[in-house]
Amino acid sequence: MRRLRSRAQATAFAAIAMVALVGGVALVVDMGVFFVVQRQMQAAADAAALAAVWYEPICPAGHPDEGCQPPTGITPIPACTTAATPSTEQVLCTVAHTYAERNLGTAHALCGGPDGTDNLTIQSYSGVAFNNPHVTPYVVAIRCDARFWFGRIIPRLINKPVGANAAATIGWRGPNGEFTGAPLPLPSPNVLIARLVRIPTPE
Amino acid sequence: MRAHVAFRRSRQRSQAIVEFGIIALLFTLLMFAVVDFGLLLNGWLTLASDAQQLARDASVGTYTNDAPGAPTGADQLQREARRLGIAGVTADNPPFTGGYCCGPNSALIVTVTYYNQCTPDTPGCTPVLATELDNHYAGGTCSTGACAHPARPGRTPGCIPSPPGTLCPGDTVAVTVTAAGAQVITPLVRPFFRSATTCPDPAGAHCYVHLSSTVAMRFDGSQF
Predict the structure, then answer these.
(1) Do the Cβ atoms of B12 and A40 come within 8 Å?
(2) Structure confidence by residue, pLDDT tens digits, A112-148
(3) Does A54 contact B at CB distance below 8 Å?
(4) Could you give the ipTM of this predicted complex?
(5) CB–CB of B216 and A99 under 8 A?
(6) Contact in structure between B77 and B110 (CB atoms under 8 Å)
(7) Mind listing the pLDDT tens digit for each residue in A1-13?
């Protein structure tokens, strides 16, 4: 009787501890993967927005908003077309996608379902002007369902949505380092810069 | 009879101790694996974030060199990289001063690559020196043979000659940050992470993990 109990104790202890520890390992690895995916997506989104915003039309002084008005409202472009003469939106989209893909690293491989399908999406569009009507942000949103590697032991843990947004705008750095949107006198000693901005989260 | 029972009990106890020994070894290894993974992940996330920061700085023109006439382009960024600090890798984070394998200056390797008017990984797009960049300030479409935005003062505006409708690709800068000095703290696990390629020390006995991150950004400006 005594012998049975002492053996059972060791086995039970081992089993419980093993479950807890393996669970811990699973949690750590899975969360780590999500952090890595998110970091890569953020880098990709930032680089894409900063690169593409240079292709936004800028209105020089004296031509306020004439043919430079960004689209009112958000118009997501799911995929870039390869037209012979691409529209401005398509150019922006191509640039954004190029830079995003350059920086995604292993994110493609870590996203997707158990069947291995890659469900990473890159959306990019001209955002809605905010604060200053001349400052038009260019927005890049990257999303995917990142894969659980160990969490799949539990049937309901298959994917976790991970994403990153970035918005950039272009403007002039004024004499005091302040940031102002176009238009300004175009032959200008001021330096034209792109920078990341915060905009209300598009969802 | 009594002696027999006592003998059996002591045998049981020693058996339990051996079992516990085996299990404890496994548990400890797992626990250290979790800690190691966490530390390396922390290192990589910092590294990736730093690479992004450095790429941004490089893209707005931070690459002047200490020695004039030697525009390898990485020096200022090297110093900045060490200032940013990665726990366990950079010298600014005692007590890990570069780890076993590297000195304070070789634990972190920053590589900066410039591409002139082309997108990396496309045919014919090869790295150039920073001084060879055309510094086309910004992009736009070449529908009129000229880019929509002006060049920086004193620079040639417009696109390189290209058919109407093609994209002005602009310049690209890619920054790769590699931490050769990152380590796994569990001795038993270390050999599996050995990286001889990144370690400056040819013996490389203590060179373990190769953390690396590359960020490519559009090149926005220049000091040249």
Answers:
(1) no
(2) 766 767 888 888 877 665 555 556 678 888 999 988 8
(3) yes
(4) 0.76
(5) yes
(6) yes
(7) 555 555 567 778 8
Q: Closest partner residue to B217 among A47, A186, A193, by Cβ?
A: A47
Task: Mark out the alpha helices in chain A (DSSP H runs).
Answer: 2-52, 88-103, 107-110
- Answer whether B44 touches A (CB < 8 Å): yes
Q: What is the pLDDT of residues B94-130, one digit of tens each?
A: 545 445 566 666 777 888 888 877 767 777 788 887 7
Tell me how far apart the alpha carbons of residues A115 and A118 are, in angstroms, rounded to a whole number: 9
Q: Does A84 touch chain B (CB under 8 A)?
A: yes
- Strands annotated E in B162-203: 172-179
Classify residue B107 as left (phi > 0), alpha (psi -120 to 50) or beta: alpha
Cβ atoms within 10 A of the Cβ of A131, count?
Answer: 10
Q: Is B137 an interface residue toward A (CB < 8 Å)? A: yes
String of DSSP letters for A153-198 = GSTT-SEEEEEEEEEEEEEEE-TTS-EEESPS-SS-SSEEEEEEE-
What is the reported pTM? Answer: 0.77
